[in-house]
Design goal:
Order of helices and strands: EHEHEHEHEHEHEHHEEHHEHEHEHEEHH
EC number: 5.1.3.14
Pfam family, one: Epimerase_2
Enzyme class: isomerase
Strand content: 15-25%
CATH superfamily of the largest domain: Glycogen Phosphorylase B
Number of domains: 2
Organism: Luoshenia tenuis
Shape: globular
Helix content: 40-55%
Family: Belongs to the UDP-N-acetylglucosamine 2-epimerase family.
Bound molecules: uridine-diphosphate-N-acetylglucosamine, uridine-5'-diphosphate
Largest sheet: 7 strands, parallel
Structural class: alpha/beta
CATH class of the largest domain: Alpha Beta
Radius of gyration: 20 Å
């Protein structure tokens, strides 16, 4: 079979690595990079580090409004599909690249396989929620990471082609965590961080720092929310490492960051696993990072009103914090009972990629 895979954003590269490896054992894959993420440290580094095959097409479509970006991608992906005539189109997650790929395939009657189907925040104001609902309703094959995701689809009447494969991000963590350990010890990872603002991270220690990432539109486009997050981080009594997403970097609220916050360039996946595994806590609005924290046994505070990954909340490993100074501080300094370890079983057995490859 000929599979045409569409990726474009950082988390999709990480998910595509194990799936691509599994798919290529039995099928031919044509890889399309939309260009949604284009900085070297948001894109190239993942292809190199995770040995993802070089894209067959790079559409170079990044930036712009949601409609503009999605529309341009739709047009360009359709051209590639008309030329390649794939048997199946494969899309990941909930970005504009996901929706554009699904829509282009749907209109050409090419069956769509959606990896990470069935996730819901039940907040339609999120661009991601619109993308994932629409993609799920176009898809013929739906790979769900959890049973909750299966049930969300059933509640919307989507029952055909649905399979609980487990979460491919568990595959990615299992495969790469050991490689990360072998690649570099923590002190070397810290010393090599490219600091944009704040003190050097070189002398930080295991469990001696918070790891923060913020990029969600709802937190970054509202100046008061971003300022609240910055002010809360400023009051934490441990240093913070913040690999900064390009959409946040130049925001004027960032000038208010205190010295103990190490604002650093985005890092590669292996470094990120090291930083996550050794942090005292993760503070994030990322989807993927909430799970990686759980898989690596690091407590997490999610700076959002809701999460799609409800299983991470069990046992208090992950808690939600409102964008409110006092609430963020209370959650970030809470005591977490780590004695029973984390339960990752809701996310499958770490062999999702093989199961996904068998769906086509
Ligand atoms: C996108 C996804 C989001 C996902 C995130 C992963 C959508 C609607 N959102 O959000 O679901 O969680 O990726 O990180 O698809 N930029 C650069 N260089 C880059 C990439 C982005 O400078 O390499 C800047 C551009 O100014 C761009 C802005 O960041 O306009 C936002 O990028 P965009 O891809 O639209 O959204 P993300 O916030 O990255
Ligand atoms: N990540 C990374 N380097 C960074 C920040 C994040 O490798 O500097 C990884 C992170 O470990 C996770 C993925 O990127 O695997 C999450 O991507 P992001 O937060 O951008 O998107 P989301 O998961 O929210 O869609």
């Amino acid at each position: 079979m000929k599979i045409l895979t569409i990726v474009g954003a950082r988390p999709q590269f990480i998910k595509a690595a194990p799936v691509s490896r599994a798919l290529r054992k039995a099928h031919r894959e044509v890889l399309v990079h939309t260009g949604q993420h284009y900085d070297a440290n948001m894109s190239d580094i993942f292809f190199e580090e995770l040995h993802i095959p070089k894209p067959d097409y790079n559409l170079g479509i990044g930036g712009g409004s949601h409609g503009q970006m999605t529309g341009r991608m739709l047009e360009a992906i359709e051209q590639v599909m008309l030329k390649e005539k794939p048997d199946v189109a494969l899309v990941y997650g909930d970005t504009n690249s996901t929706l554009a790929g699904a829509l282009a395939a749907g209109k050409l009657l090419i069956p769509v396989l959606h990896v990470e189907a069935g996730l819901r925040s039940f907040n339609r104001a999120m661009p991601e929620e619109q993308n994932r609902v629409l993609t799920d309703h176009i898809a013929a094959l739906l790979s769900c990471p959890t049973q909750t995701a299966v049930e969300n689809l059933h509640a919307e009447g989507v029952t055909q082609g649905v399979r609980n494969t487990g979460d491919v991000m568990l595959d990615a963590v299992r495969y790469n965590a050991q490689l990360a350990q072998e690649a570099k010890p923590l002190h070397k990872t810290l010393a090599q961080l490219r600091v944009l603002r704040g003190k050097s991270a070189a002398l930080l220690e295991d469990k001696g720092y918070y790891l923060a990432t913020i990029h969600r539109q709802e937190n970054t486009d509202a100046p008061d929310k971003l300022l609240t997050i910055v002010e809360a981080l400023n009051e934490l009594n441990h240093p913070v490492i913040w690999p900064v997403h390009p959409r946040v970097r130049e925001r004027k609220e960032m000038a208010r960051l205190g010295d103990h916050i190490r604002l650093v360039e985005p890092v590669g996946y292996l470094d990120m696993l090291m930083l996550t595994g050794h942090a005292r806590m993760v503070l994030t609005d990322s989807g993927g990072l909430q799970k990686e924290a759980l898989f690596l046994g690091t407590p997490c505070t999610t700076l959002r009103d809701e999460t799609e990954w409800v299983e991470t909340l069990e046992g208090g490993w992950n808690v939600l914090a409102k964008i409110d100074r006092a609430d963020i501080l209370a959650k970030a300094t809470r005591a977490v009972d780590t004695r029973n370890g984390t339960a990752c079983s809701a996310f499958g057995d770490g062999n999702a990629a093989e199961k996904i490859a068998r769906m086509v």
